[in-house]
């Protein structure tokens, strides 16, 4: 059964398909049987490749999706009576349906404001020093998202300043790397420069948004936090019996370099869209376009008209507005069609 593709998906990089490099490795992993539950050779190779890529002997785990990755990683970084400091727009706060709190058996998220979706050292310290009594859930983890939920980036300097505050207050540092590849691409920084070298203890690295069907890698640079973590995954239903079908596509991304080129392309498409939108009368960006998503305010009639034309995009992310997300397979033709339709509906 083949149906015509609806070419108008810009709601999320989650709507893209599997990139060729990942598909090639998936099919290769399907050629022969292999051991289950992560004991296969593909999983071992993928984990080693991550250690080579990050230039660090980190622990590596694979789970199905980002909510599981964040929730389980955070549950390993603090105890139920602790709190996790995150930005008020953080995905773990807004879009994980209480997963982090559930899997940590009650750790509380303490949210902090910050321009452009980013935590600040001052905002973190304000929450840490707000109270010290026994009734306050003791801050133990800082969770930041790189690239952020509103498509902005933390510089290395900003990450190091957050690490300094974390050191001052004995806090651990979690990075939601749903779009980590986009951050590396945009900042022209190595994975090491944006993680362990700036004191990140654990990274949740999304493959789903980078060209996989599913599959997130959890990297523990602070290996003490990874003790018994595989049991957490199993208990949460996140230990894939046919793990090779998660890890082999990941290996395809890493060995081919597509993890980076996919992100570079997505970022380039977002820049193209961003420039095109800013050229339209009365259209302004809500946030600087630094990764693969573009946020603009559009009048309600325009949003309705665009959706009636078949365009899909979210209006509930971050501080509202319309979010357009570019992926590894986004094309200029698609974006030109969107820009033409936006121009047309705005002129109505
Ligand atoms: C910033 C961020 N973190 C985490 C996730 C969680 O991913 P999932 O939807 O796979 O649970 C997403 C979803 O796309 C996301 O945008
Ligand atoms: C919004 C949804 O949760 C998903 N994280 C996305 O960015 O598309």
From TrEMBL:
Any signal peptide, and if so, which residues?
none
List the cofactors: pyridoxal 5'-phosphate
For whether the record's keyword set contains Kinase, the answer is no
Q: Does the keyword Protein biosynthesis apply?
A: no
**Alphabetical UniProt keywords:** Lyase, Pyridoxal phosphate
User: Which GO biological process categories is it annotated with?
Assistant: L-threonine catabolic process
Any one GO molecular function term: threonine aldolase activity
Listed PANTHER family = L-THREONINE ALDOLASE-RELATED (PTHR48097), LOW SPECIFICITY L-THREONINE ALDOLASE (PTHR48097:SF5)
- Described purpose of this protein according to its UniProt entry: Catalyzes the cleavage of L-allo-threonine and L-threonine to glycine and acetaldehyde.
* Protein name stated in the entry: L-threonine aldolase
What is the phylogenetic placement of the source species in the record? Bacteria, Pseudomonadati, Pseudomonadota, Gammaproteobacteria, Oceanospirillales
């Amino acid at each position: 059964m083949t149906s015509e593709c609806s070419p108008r998906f810009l709601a999320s990089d989650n709507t893209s398909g599997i990139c060729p490099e990942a598909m090639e490795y998936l099919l290769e992993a399907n050629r022969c049987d292999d051991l289950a539950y992560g004991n296969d050779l593909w999983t071992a190779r993928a984990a080693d490749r991550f250690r080579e890529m990050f230039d660090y002997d980190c622990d590596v785990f694979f789970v199905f999706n980002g909510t599981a990755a964040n929730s389980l990683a955070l549950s390993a970084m603090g105890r139920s009576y602790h709190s996790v400091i995150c930005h008020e727009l953080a995905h773990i706060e807004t879009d994980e349906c209480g997963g982090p709190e559930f899997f940590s058996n009650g750790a509380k998220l303490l949210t902090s404001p910050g321009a452009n979706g980013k935590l600040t050292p001052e905002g973190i310290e304000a929450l840490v020093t707000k109270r010290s009594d026994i009734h306050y859930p003791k801050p133990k983890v800082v969770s930041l998202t790189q690239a952020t939920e509103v498509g902005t980036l933390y510089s290395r300097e900003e990450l190091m300043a957050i690490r300094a505050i974390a050191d001052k207050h004995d806090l651990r540092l979690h990075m939601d790397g749903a779009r980590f590849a986009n951050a590396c691409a945009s900042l022209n920084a190595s994975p090491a420069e944006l993680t362990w070298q700036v004191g990140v203890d654990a990274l949740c690295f999304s493959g789903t948004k980078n060209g996989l069907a599913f599959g997130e890698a959890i990297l523990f640079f602070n290996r003490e936090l990874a003790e018994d973590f595989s049991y957490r995954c199993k208990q949460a239903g996140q230990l894939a019996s046919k793990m090779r079908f998660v890890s082999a596509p990941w290996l395809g991304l890493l060995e081919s370099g597509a993890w980076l080129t996919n992100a570079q392309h997505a970022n380039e498409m977002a820049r193209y869209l961003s420039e095109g939108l800013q050229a339209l009368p009365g259209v302004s960006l809500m946030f600087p376009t630094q990764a693969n998503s573009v946020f603009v305010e559009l009048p309600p009639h325009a949003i309705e008209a665009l959706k009636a034309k078949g365009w899909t995009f979210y209006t509930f992310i971050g501080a509202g507005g319309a979010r357009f997300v570019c992926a590894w397979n986004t094309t200029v033709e698609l974006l030109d069609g969107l820009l033409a339709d936006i121009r047309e509906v705005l002129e109505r």
